[in-house]
Structure formats: structure tokens, C-alpha cells
Amino acid sequence: MSAWRRIPVVAAGAALLSGCMVGPNFHRPAPPAVSGYTPGPLPPSTTAAPVPGGASQSFAPGADVAAQWWTLFGSPQVDDLVQRALKANPDLDAARAALKAAHEAWLVERGTLLPTADASYQATREKSSGTLSPVLSTPNDLFTLHTVTLDVVYTADVFGGLRRQIEN
Fold it and tell me: Which of 59, 81, 54 is nearest to 70 (CA)?
């Protein structure tokens, strides 16, 4: 096959390989356009029920909520449960630490796109055996062996799999 006939074959192969990217680009969806929790406006009050504590309730959408809102129920069991939950709950420092750990994990994932290098050096002192090895060029049987290694590794993200793992 002549060189001119190979060009379309190589171009077609490159076009096919470029279409093998893993998945579409991620786009964060837009938040829903709502102004409240219900589809329509809330009624001014609820219906009363003929049971203890079943009086009609009214909604105050712009009103402040008490900091310890659970005390409004007047239940010592609920108060105790909430107090125990607050004591056992991780605080803001723990949340910051978790966010920092997640960020560091993300940086590690991004590092997979970069090449890695590893270098080492080793020196060993050895003595030549007169019976098993050839005679050295020097009359001294002792010698030092210096070994230097360098490894460079790069993973080519041809199909985009590594980038898809990193996407937010």
C-alpha cells in the first residue's frame, strides 16, 4: 500500500479513536425554580382536630424560629434526646477536617494525570571470589558497586477515563 493510500486509513483510525472518550462532559444541573416547599400558597391556618393538642395552627413564613425550637413541644424526652445528639454530634472543626480530607483526596486524583518519577542510589562493598568469578583488572579483590536507577511513569489518558474520575 502506498503512503498516499495510508493517510485516509490513519485519519479514519484517529477519528474513530477520538470518538472513544468516556462519557459526555459533566455540567451541573440548574437548581429548581421554586420559591417554597409547596406548589401553591399555604392556607392561613390548619384545621382543628377534636383531640388534646389538636387546636388550629397558623403559618408564619417570615417569622424567626427559636434557637431551641424543640423545647416548644414541652417534652423532657425530646429535650434529653436533642441534648444527647448535640453532644455526640461532630462540631465545626470536624466538618472542616472532613472537607480538607476530601480536598486532599481530590488533589491526589488530579495527580494521576501527571508523570511520576522515582530515583534511587545504592552502593555495595563486595569481594571477588577467586574461584567463581574472573580475575579483576586490579590486584585488589575488594570493590564497590554503585547502582543508580531512575523510573519515570506516565499514564496516557487516551480515552478520558482518568479525567472522568476527577470530575466534580
Answer: 81
